[in-house]
Amino acid sequence: MGNTGSTGLQDGVVSKKELERLQRRFLRLAKGGDLVALADFQALPELAGNPLVPRVLQLADKDRDGHLRLADFTDAVGELGRLYTDDDRAAFTFRVYDLDGDGYVTPAELEATLRRLAGQALSAEQLAEVVAATVAAHDSDGDGRLSPREFRSLLAAGNPKLRLSLH
Q1: How far is residue 47's CA from residue 67's CA, in Å, rounded to a whole number?
Q2: pTM passes above 0.85
Q3: Rounded Cα distance, 157 and 160, in Å
Q4: Which end of the chain is more exposed for a tag (fewer CB within 10 A), N or C?
Q5: Would you call 102 helix, strand, or coil by DSSP?
Q6: Is the CB of residue 148 less than 8 Å from the CB of residue 91?
Q7: 142: domain CATH number?
């Protein structure tokens, strides 16, 4: 991801026509350039209500400057289009929750992401209880954080609030 030659068309998941439509939309947002602020994406009506959009955009922002380049956008579209299997979706969802990218989801990262999803539906105390119980139930090696394998077991347990939805 991130190289300028990428098309996001691997395995034919995103049709060329659809990719071209998305690229035109990107270029309109970029006002003729090839750079769009993440905040501009977040303001789009179809994305504005989704609490996970800021994190997904952050993952697509390869140089972490608060902007997406056309190549990064195209790569992200391709990646999202290739989430075929439960394992693919679990791996991507793990990346959304792993805020510092260290390969583990800590209780603080789980709490921060769940706070985005739950909004004010849970008090701070309730959320802390949910996080503590979740980590205790799925941290099979007792290190106080969730590995990708442990996180997959959490997703497999069926809590729909933890699943990634970009719709």
Answers
A1: 16
A2: no
A3: 9
A4: C
A5: coil
A6: yes
A7: 1.10.238.10
Domain span at residue 40 reads 13-81
> Under DSSP, is residue 49 helix (H, G, I), strand (E, B) or coil?
coil
Torsion of CA 52, 56, 57, 60, to 10 degrees: 180
Last residue of some domain: 31, 60, 81? 81
- 28 located within any domain: yes
- What total of structural domains would you count in the chain? 2
- Residues 108 and 146 reside in one and the same domain: yes
